[in-house]
Design a protein that fits this description.
The chain is α/β, with parallel strands linked by helices. The protein contains 20 helices and 14 strands. One of its GO terms (cellular component) is cytoplasm.
Length: 479
């Protein structure tokens, strides 16, 4: 059997030489060209078993050529290379029917592996190109290697309904990725419904997800649709899935297994057609070991795991991100801003515990509070400096629990773009205070619940119920 013939199109002679050497050593026949016209002639004449082409060619853009190639030879694999390493480049490659997208520079071993995989697959791949108008705005920002891998995975997922689990620290943009999967995927014409598990009281989660019938519980005066019903035909984004209580996890697992659910108080099974995208800032495997998350549900949700890197791991994206946020602030009526070199370097040295969300909030603060057009290094130093804790006279005394909570809440409200956290704040704050309070009392009494209840001024049965409801681990020791 003769070796496979690979058609390579790139106007950079050095790249053509490198690819020729690598693929020839791998045992392939290679034909090289520096323009799209020659590549089109070869393809239209039936030559080549696979195409490797750069996006930007001197005579035609590969994205314009790709639909024509897929029309006359739908089963010809086309690998697209590009130095324009943006999310939309990966999406366009996928929409135009490319087999794979490779951002330059790339690993030659990886390219050879992709070529081998493409040639080994059955020749039944249909064109997946789309003639719809493309969005010029970028939903995801960054050209770092970490983000390039995210773009490539997302591009592969656009034409599928696979369940995706997005993990990452708070503020890394998990919902943005979920929205990109929806907005550029096959369900783009359906609804995108997001629900934050941490923002819903535990006793209302099932009603929130699946809806309820009139009279199902006290206060249910009318039938209400749940998030599954609202997302029908589209995407359901389950944010902070690690905060879902076990009883709701069991019902969710049943829905994923059977493809149907019942409303709270209902008896008729309802078929569901939604794509599930979940997200968490917790390590679900640790929660599984602690008995707080179902392992079978984890495997149902973790079909395609996607880890978003924290900003400190993609710090080279910071200049693009801060420019983007300044543009958004300007669109909202704030004055235009730029950073000088020292200011940018100072930002790059920051650890960014709040990740991209922290950077966005800083950009808006700079645009709103500072009159100068160019933001300097000293301004950034002032903004990123740890706030001094005032005490005594002449300042606000934050000593004591009340002051600490007030300071925490001020920071919490400021961390959201519109200054408003998700609904359910009252119950979340109480739980955040209640868990360490009960844990401290149990620790001080060495796990003795009778003594801990007396210390707290609670009935013993009340304490036991709270321990169970809040999933508090009780460790007993001698002492």
């Amino acid at each position: 059997m003769p070796p496979a013939n690979i058609l390579i199109a790139d106007d950079d002679g050095a790249i053509r030489t490198v690819l020729n050497q690598a693929l020839s050593r791998a045992g392939y026949d290679v034909r090289l060209t520096g323009n799209a016209a020659t590549l089109w002639r070869w393809v239209s004449q039936g030559e080549g078993d696979i195409v490797i082409t750069d996006v930007v060619m001197p005579d035609e853009n590969a994205f314009d050529l790709l639909p024509r190639i897929k029309k006359i030879r739908p089963n010809l694999p086309v690998i697209v290379m590009s130095a324009q390493n943006t999310f939309m480049t990966a999406v366009r490659a996928s929409e135009r029917g490319a087999y794979e997208y490779l951002p330059k520079p790339f690993d030659l071993k990886e390219l050879i592996a992709i070529v081998g995989r493409a040639l080994a697959e059955p020749k039944e791949r249909a064109a997946t190109g789309s003639d719809e108008n493309e969005c010029d705005s970028l939903p995801l920002i960054g050209r770092s290697p970490a983000m390039q891998e995210i773009y490539r995975v997302l591009a592969r997922l656009m034409q599928t309904d696979l369940t995706v689990m997005i993990s990452g620290e708070s503020g890394t943009g998990k919902e943005l990725v979920a929205r990109a999967l929806h907005d550029y995927g096959k369900r783009r014409n359906g609804p995108f419904v997001a629900v934050n598990m941490a923002a819903i009281p535990r006793d209302l989660i099932e009603s929130e997800l699946f809806g309820h019938e009139r009279g199902a519980f006290t206060g249910a005066n009318a039938r209400a649709s749940g998030r599954f019903e609202q997302a029908e035909g589209g995407t359901l984004f389950l944010d902070e899935i690690g905060d879902m209580p076990m009883e709701a996890q069991t019902r969710l697992l049943r829905v994923l297994q059977q493809g149907e659910y019942c409303t709270v108080g209902g008896r008729t099974a309802i078929k569901t057609d939604v794509r599930i995208v979940a997200a968490t800032n917790k390590d679900l495997r640790i929660l599984i070991q602690q008995g707080l998350f179902r392992e079978d549900l984890f495997f149902r949700l973790n079909v395609v795991p996607l880890r978003l890197p924290p900003l400190r791991e993609r710090i080279e994206d910071l200049p693009d991100l801060i420019r983007h946020f300044f543009v958004l602030a300007e669109r909202d009526g704030l004055p235009p801003k730029k950073l000088d070199t020292l200011a940018l370097e100072r930002l790059k040295r920051h650890r960014w515990p709040g990740n991209v969300r922290e950077l966005e909030n800083l950009a808006r603060r700079l645009a709103a509070l500072y009159p100068q057009d160019i933001i300097t290094g000293p301004v950034i130093d002032c903004e990123l400096a740890s706030p001094a804790v005032a005490s005594g006279t002449g300042g606000h005394n934050i000593n004591g629990l009340s002051g600490a909570v007030e300071m925490h809440l001020s920071s919490l409200f400021a961390s959201f773009p519109n200054g408003l956290p998700p609904p359910g704040l009252y119950h979340r704050v109480l739980r955040e205070i209640e868990v360490p309070l009960l844990t401290a009392a149990l620790t001080a009494t060495h796990g003795n619940q009778i003594r801990a209840a007396d210390l707290l001024g609670l009935n013993r049965n009340t304490l036991r119920k709270k321990i169970r409801d809040l999933d508090i681990q009780v460790y007993r020791s001698a002492g």
